[in-house]
Structure formats: structure tokens, C-alpha cells
Write a structure and sequence with these properties.
The complex is a heterodimer of chains A (about 400) and B (about 325).
Chain A lengths: L6 H17 L2 H9 L6 H13 L18 H13 L7 H14 L2 H12 L5 E4 L15 E5 L2 E9 L9 E7 L10 E7 L5 E6 L8 E12 L3 E2 L5 H15 L3 H17 L1 E2 L2 E2 L4 H25 L8 H27 L5 E2 L7 H5 L9 H9 L10 H13 L5
Parallel strand pairs in A: 1-4
Antiparallel strand pairs in A: 2-3, 3-7, 4-5, 5-8, 6-7, 9-10
Chain B lengths: L7 H17 L21 H9 L18 H13 L5 H14 L5 H5 L5 E6 L6 E5 L6 E6 L2 E6 L4 E8 L6 E5 L8 E3 L3 H31 L1 E2 L2 E2 L4 H29 L5 H27 L10 H13 L4 H12 L1
Parallel strand pairs in B: 1-3
Antiparallel strand pairs in B: 1-2, 2-6, 3-4, 4-7, 5-6, 8-9
Classes of the chains: A alpha+beta (about 400), B alpha+beta (about 325).
The complex binds flavin-adenine dinucleotide.
Amino acid sequence: MHFEPSPGDVAFRADVREFIRQHLPPDMARRSYICSQPPDIGDFRRWQRILHDRGWGAPHWPVEYGGTGWTAMQRHIFMEEIFRADAIDYGWQGTHMIGPVLIAFGTEEQRRRFLPPMLRGEEIWCQGFSEPNAGSDLASLRTRAELAGDEWVIHGQKIWTSDAAEADWGFFLVRTDPHAKPQRGISMLLVPMNAPGVRVRPIEALNGGRDLNEVFLDGVRVPRGNLVGEAGQGWTCAKYLLEKERTASAYLYRNRRELEKAREIARAETVEGVRLIDTPEFARRIARVEADLLALEWSVLRILAGEKNLHDADAVVSALKIRGAEMQQRVAALQLDALGPRALRVFAQGDRSAEVIEGTSLWPAYVPGRLGQFLYARAATLYGGTREIQKNIIARRAFGLGSG
Amino acid sequence: MIDLLPSEEQQQIIDSVAGFLEAQLPVTRLRPGPDGARPADAGLTDALWHHIASLGWFGLGVSEAQGGAGYPIVVEMLVARELGRHAVSPSVTATMAAAHLAARGGETSLASLIGGERRVAVANRVSAGGDEYHLIDGRGADCFLILEETETRLYHASAFGRTRPVMSLDDAVTLDRADLPASAQPLLRDATGDIAHRVSLLNSAQLLGVAEAALRLAVDYAGAREQFGQAIGSFQAIKHSCADMAVRAEAAYAQTFFAGLSQGSRRPDAAYQIAAAKVVSADAALANARACIQIHGGIGFTAECDAHVFLKRAHLLGQLGGERRWLRSTLLGSGV
Ligand SMILES: Cc1cc2nc3c(=O)[nH]c(=O)nc-3n(C[C@H](O)[C@H](O)[C@H](O)COP(=O)(O)OP(=O)(O)OC[C@H]3O[C@@H](n4cnc5c(N)ncnc54)[C@H](O)[C@@H]3O)c2cc1C
């Protein structure tokens, strides 16, 4: 194991930092400091374009499709710098999920059609997997597609589709063979969200957010060529994609930045004249999370570096997901406790008033986003496969325990 | 042995309070309507306030000689627990506590509090030493009750200036910022700790109600929702999570009602028991609300499911009536 930054890494970090300093619009950084999750779609598009122009639109992709060919350490440094500067975390459903799937399973034509606009931040994607009755048990999904001539005709309903209202395209899991074993009968289709028969209904989240949706597919027709891989290969594609999602789902960089904010709050807030950070109880709580964060960092670096693990790779990835998700919740709770009774008040997600953006002495800029994050963090142990499902995977893949 | 279970008479009171709230203020009232809006006053209209007064809730613990029902504090707590279950405005318990404050001072306002003509709401200081307060469900309130450490004060609403609305984390209450000048004189105050203890116990009882309601909702869902061809409640992860919730609720119940009894019998360690009840019940409410969301999966993250109501109410009540930091020092100072 060799994780010491080389002189080249140090220069690389300086490079990245300088680029971000010059190109990250300050108003965007401010918004993302206040509330980074979920990012403003307009900001996301702008920032993705800026990164792409520098050749950094999807550092983890193979070079021939627009990746950077960076080492694991460089990718790590890049993400650290992104979050340190309050820049935007890049495209989840796009460059993180469907991009790698198209690179691995798509046709050359699909790659040429879809990857460039994804890199430029011009086309936003959504992920249509979950259904009302197929959440954890995804393989029981019922949305179906049939070939009619040169077109797939899709009928069914998806739910919890993040960003469906803004998305230009969605990748959907559909049942194409009702007679095959559940997993085998599933295929992945690319669907333009403005196609006739697609209807999106937003669902209000507990934090007032409106990025979750129901998607109704009522006789939607897409060309035969919108199938990813082969018919019946959808489950394999989805597994590949969720693995990619979970590696990033350690939320390492986000967690580090949010813990830094917790420290910032604890340095500013006082109890009976003593800075919160100087009280033994709070200092101890921060140190405890920091210790777990360090451990998470080493685990992520090991995966980035492609190191062999003691256990099955799926189990390790699930372990990271659990750790990273729970840490988001712990850090949010820490921030909230540090805010004390101020934390009865929330701020609207899109609030751009001077009071929010600049802060006041009683309501410093570190206050407004924290409660939203506290609520949003509840989702961290749900999306991308719930915590309980991840534990089942660990037990099964690492130890062969149970079938669940 | 002490008996923490309600007597037959107390059980009748619980049943009637629970029945009334279930009919008039079910938690489902807080769901967004088709237009996304929630009911004004979270359903607690003036008419309902008067109805509650006519049921005698505001004077439950006040002596019969002073126009109340003369019940011990635990009966008020049993009502508060039901209020917590239904996420009813903390103004109800604030008014119950204010009635005691008025009764001690032999105040003429007592009758109007018990009778429902005067409404008391909670004011909570935003940051130590500052003049700014959060008024919780304060619109239309005549007075505000402030609890700080062991002191309780009641102010006329006009004592607050520069009131401006803000968004509340718990969207089942309204929230306003307002300034209370240092020169403002309270109508009533109590520095003996007696009223402060009552307020704290009523908050703990509401938190207990929140913890129990979250448990109920989670268990019901675990029995109804199916994945992999079976109820999710048949998976051990879910079963155990429900069991953990029950363990927390039981602990909160035992400590909260023991603290209530110790206040009633003026045990020397009552302050300690009451602080412990607040810590245990607040933790139970928060943890159970979180677990309830987790057990619901995606639907638990929405405003259409009631689980979030309990998370937000647990958070709100946990912040009221004494900061956790102060509670800890009470625990450390008098317990060991
Ligand atoms: C903010 C957010 C964003 C999301 N974005 C997307 C998206 O973009 N696209 C998409 O397709 N989906 C998305 N999802 C959906 C998410 O993947 C599902 O919510 C998740 O898979 C759980 O499914 P469910 O909601 O149906 O819960 P259920 O599967 O009904 O689970 C309910 C509870 O039962 C437990 N459970 C279920 N089965 C078992 C078992 N075998 N053993 C133990 N416990 C079990 C679960 O852990 C959970 O606690 C999103 C969800 C959230 C909250």
C-alpha cells in the first residue's frame, strides 16, 4: 500500500486548486457552501461545462471517451479540492451512472450520441429503477416493454425518480421477457423524457424539496436502438451501475467538508462564554467522527487504488456505503447540536436573500443550510439500496450467510 | 414498589382524550392537500381551543378551590402524551403550565386561561444572552411563556416587538422571530423551579407520545408493506428495529412518569429525575422518528407520509424548555 503523495501529486493539487480558484464562480460556491445537496441544476450545468472545457468533465472515464487517465491519488486529490472549494459534486445519474454503463455495455453509436452532451452538462439524466411495489425487491419490477416493429413500447410506472422533471433523458429498467427468471427478463432502455406518453408528477419530500418524482409511462415508444446491451441484460447493467454509485457513495469528501463546517460552527458558538469546540464533550464528539472519517478515507483509497480486499468486492462497497451514509447523518446531527436553539428555523432551499448569502451576526451564513441537510441526510440510508439491504449483501457476499 | 401504570380513572381520561384527538386532530390532518398547502393552525382552530377548554384540560392540575380539577401532575402528563402523539401545538401545554403560574400568584387571569379566553404560546430564546426569541404558534396568542433553566416567566404578547415570520423546521407550527427588550416586565414569574419542572415534565410527556406514535406507525407499516413476497416486518432487521423502538419508548415511559411522581411527592432528587426524563424521552423520540422513516423506505422521506411529523416534533420539543447542555449539567451536578 502506497498512499504518500509524490512531488508530482503536490504539484497536481496546486494545479487543480488554482484552476478552481480562477474558474469557480463565487456566487455558485456560496450557494453550494450554504446548501450543497442536492445541487442547483443550473449551477450543475454551468460547472460541468467549465470542467469539461478543461478536460475534467469525467475524470474516472477511460481517456478515449473523455476521461483523464489520472491515478487513484490524483482522482482523490481532485475530489478533495472540489469539496474544499465548495464547488459542485459532478453528475450522479449522468457521468457517474449511465456514462460508465454505456462505456461498458453500449454500442459505439450510443456512446457517440450520449457521452459528449453528458460531459458538456447539456443533457441531464434520471434513473428509472424503483417502482411502487419494487423497491428493495427491484427484480420484481413490472414496467414492461414490447417490441413492435422497430420500436419498444413501454407501459408502467416508476417512483422516486430523482430529477425526472429536469431530465432530458432517463435510463429505465423494464421487463421485456415475462417468462424468464425475474432478473433475466429485465432490460435497460434509454427514454427521452419529452416523449409522448411520459408523465412526471413531483413528490414533495420531507424537507420541502421537489426533486423526487413519479414517472408514468403510458405507451411510450422508443427506437429499438435505445436498448442498452442486449435484451435481458438490464440486471447486469444495473448491478454494474449501482456498484459505481456506491464507490462514490462513501461520501468521503462531502463528509469531510461538512465535518469542517461543524468545527467552524463550534469555534464560533459559545456556551457560558466558552467556545463550544473548547468544551470536552463537543471536542470529543468531533474527534470521534474524525476518527471514523480517517478510516473511511483509507478504505476509499484502497478501492480507488484497486487493492485486493479481505472480502468480496460487493461486500466492501456495501460497507463503504453504510459507513458513508451513517456518517452524513452523524455529522448533520453534530452541526445541529452546535447550533442550539437557533435550529428551530429553516430556510427555503432557494432563498437567495442577503441575510442568507452574507449572514448576520445572529444568523451567520453557516446556519441556513444546516437544517435542510439534517433532513436530507435521512435519505442517505435509503437511496442506492437501503442500509438493511447493504447489510444483507455483506452477510451473503462476505460470509455466505442467508439468501437475502 | 411503585406503580407507574394509570389507575382506572386515569385510563378513562386517557381514552377520552385520545378519542377526542383522534377524531378532531388526527396526524393525517398535517398532510399536504392537493395544492400542497397544509391546514391553517395545523387544525387547532379557535373553536377547537374553546372546546378543549370546555373539556377542562387547561385547569386539570389546578386546585378545585381555584376552579380546576385538582388532579396530580401525572394526569396532566397523560394528556400531554396524547398531545405529543398527535403533534398538537405546544401552546396547549404552555397554557396548562401558565395556569399553574397564575394560580400561584392568585392571578385574576387564571379563570380566562382555564376558560380558553386567553391563549398562551411558547417563546424560546434564539441564542444565549440575546434579545431575539422564536415565538412558536404565537399568532393570536395573548401571552408567551418563557422557560430558562429553573425560571419561568409569562409576558404579555405586546412585550415583544419587531415580530416577523420565518419558516419553521417543524412545519406543523408557525414560527416568528421577535425581540424582547431587556426592560420588558413579565406579568408573572416563578424562580422556585416548580413551574419549570412542570413545563419540563409536560415536554417530556409529549416527547414520549412522539416516540410511541412513531413506533405505532412503524409497526403498522412493517405489517402491511411487502417486499420479496413477504411483509417487511418478517425480516429480522425490521423486527429488531421495531423492538429497539419499543425498548426506547418503554424507558422513556418509565423515567418520565417516575419523574412525574417524584415531582408530585416532592422527592429531594426530583430535579435530577426530571432532567433525566427530558434527556431519555428526547433521545427516544428522535431515535424512534428516525427508525420510523427508515422502516418506511422511500415513502418515509416524503411529506405525504406522517413519519416526518414525528422527526420534526421530536426536534422541536427537544429544543424547548432548557437546552440539553444545561440539562446535562443538572444531571452531572445533582446526580452523582
Ligand atoms: C432521496 C431519494 C432518492 C432516490 N432516487 C432514486 C432514483 O433516482 N431512481 C430510482 O430508481 N430510485 C431512487 N430512490 C429509491 C430508492 O432506491 C428506494 O427507496 C430504496 O431502494 C428502497 O425501496 P422502497 O422505498 O420501496 O422501500 P422498501 O423496499 O419497501 O423497504 C422498506 C423497509 O424495509 C426494509 N427491507 C426491505 N427488504 C428487506 C430485506 N430483505 N431485509 C431487511 N430489510 C428489508 C428496507 O431496508 C426498508 O427499511 C430514491 C430514494 C430516495 C429516498
